[in-house]
Amino acid sequence: MAFLFQKFQEAVKTLAKSPTFAFARDPRQLQYQIDLNRLFLYTSYNRLGKNASEADAEEIIEIATKASVADQQMVVQENVHAQIKAFCTFMDAVFLPNEKKVNDVSFELSQQTKILPQHSDLRSANGVPKQRLISQVELSQKLKDELGYTLNVKPSQISHKDAGQGLFLDGVVDVGAVVAFYPGVVYSPAYYHHIPGYLDEQNPYLITRHDGNVIDAQLWGRGGDKKELWNGRKMVDEKGSQVDNSDDVLERRNPLALAHFANHPSKGMLPNVMICPYDFPLIENDMRAYIPNVLFGNAAEENTERFGSFWFKSRVPRNNESHVPTTLKTVVLVATRALQDEELLLNYRLGNTKRCPEWYAPVDEEEIIEE
Q1: What angle separates helix 136-147 from helix 69-95, to the nearest 10 degrees?
Q2: Phi-psi category of 32—alpha, beta or left, where left has phi over 0 and alpha has psi -120 to 50?
Q3: Which own/partner contact pairs does 110-119 have at CB distance under 8 Å and 24+ positions apart?
Q4: Residue 294 bridge partners (DSSP)
Q5: Beta-bridge partner residues of 192
Q6: Coiled-coil ranges per the record (predicted)?
Q7: What are the CB-based long-range contacts (under 8 Å, 24+) for 46-49?
């Protein structure tokens, strides 16, 4: 596998300099295409598994040189979704160990035209499967035992006074692995003015996707010790009425919902994770509680369009169609190499800000994108 990974690393460096990307006029779009190409290679390599052959690796590299941006984006989404689905399956196995037994019993009793007792040991009074009482710490350890890794937040090893807490991998993952979720409230460009600390740059827990959506992790903190309704704050639209997010019941014990604690590397160091946009399909009801994000605003009423560097809002849906979202636009962190028991470092890419912190050192001068 080490030999195959070397081939992938060489392909990443070569494709990043490909003249294919020169067709993207917008610098941000250019950077996104380069990043997407890397994610395509990394996540596809991860999905090959330990039994991959050299022919498999060469086929993926060849596809990466020819596939369209749309096709690569689709493959990355599929690769990431497969990993997250496996994680959600693990979470269900921990919280609902008797769910299969419940389904079997329910089916058998229905065949006999009997009714499951209201206060069954398998279900709560309202018919919802009971969850095991387990702490976030216990869940984190079970995750490591089952999947080989978990995350810890502790004092950073970055050598500057503002480093504070850092995010550490406890265990082992291979390149292309999804190692963390970026939790919090998702804001579309139309709602930038609602983001706490956005305009005065006083909120250090913001992250921006390539499509302009911003995620604020400030109120998520380190999660919690139960599954609960969570909307981050009283969400209010421009008319002053509360936006209804009452259906968002999230598992606050998610041990991977800690990406906002990842630090930027010190000068001379390289990042070992990268941002990956992940559009979670909202039809996946069984997985929803483990996706630590909620949407700010009423997407069914508001539509945004971009012209140059300006965002404009339109209250009239195109073609009179409903704009109820089918996906939740989130962010995860993906490993860019094999990792073992180390601090996770993410390139913040602050080159487009007017005032960078004293501690900030660009990872790669070529990656600085000006406004």
Answers
A1: 120
A2: alpha
A3: none
A4: 185
A5: none
A6: none
A7: 46/79, 46/83, 46/174, 46/175, 46/176, 46/177, 47/79, 47/82, 47/176, 48/4
The gap from C-alpha 194 to its chain's centroid, in whole angstroms, comes to 22
CA dist., res. 119 & res. 124, Å (int): 6
Residue 115 placed within a domain: no
Look up the domain containing 249 and give its range: 1-96+133-340
- Give mean pLDDT, residues 54-66: 84
In a domain, 23, yes or no: yes
Q: Quick check: is 109 in a domain?
A: no
Tokens 């906002």 found at:
260
DSSP 265-323: PPTT---SEEEEEEEEETT-TTTGGGS-EEE-S-TTT-EEEEETTEEEEESS-GGG---
Model confidence over 302-344: pLDDT tens digits? 444 443 333 343 334 444 455 668 999 999 999 999 999 999 9
CATH code for the domain of 313? 2.170.270.10
Whose structure tokens read 């849906």? 317
Distance of CA 183 to CAs 195, 268, 291, 292, Å?
Answer: 15, 29, 8, 5
Is the model more confident about 292 or about 298? 292
User: How many percent of the chain have pLDDT more than 70?
Assistant: 69
Tokens of 253: 């014990």
Amino acid symbol at 52: A
For the CA atoms of the chain, what is the radius of gyration? Answer: 22
AA letter at 147: L
Calculate the alpha carbon distances from 144 to 27, 138, 178, 305, 341 in Å: 39, 10, 14, 43, 12
Looking at the 3D structure of the chain, how many domains does it have? Answer: 1
The 8-class DSSP code of residue 13 comes to: H
Domain-located, residue 347: no
- The full DSSP string for 8-33 is HHHHHHHHHT-GGGGG--SHHHHHHH
The helix (run of H) or strand (run of E) holding residue 64 is helix 54-66
Per DSSP, 242 falls in state B
Amino acid identity, position 334: V
Structure-block tokens of residue 352: 């487009």
- Angle (CA) 64-67-70 rounded to 5° is 120
Give, as one character, the DSSP assignment of residue 19. G
Burial of 354 per CB tally in 10 Å (0-12, 13-18, 19+): exposed
Joined together, the tokens standing for residue 196 give 């706490």
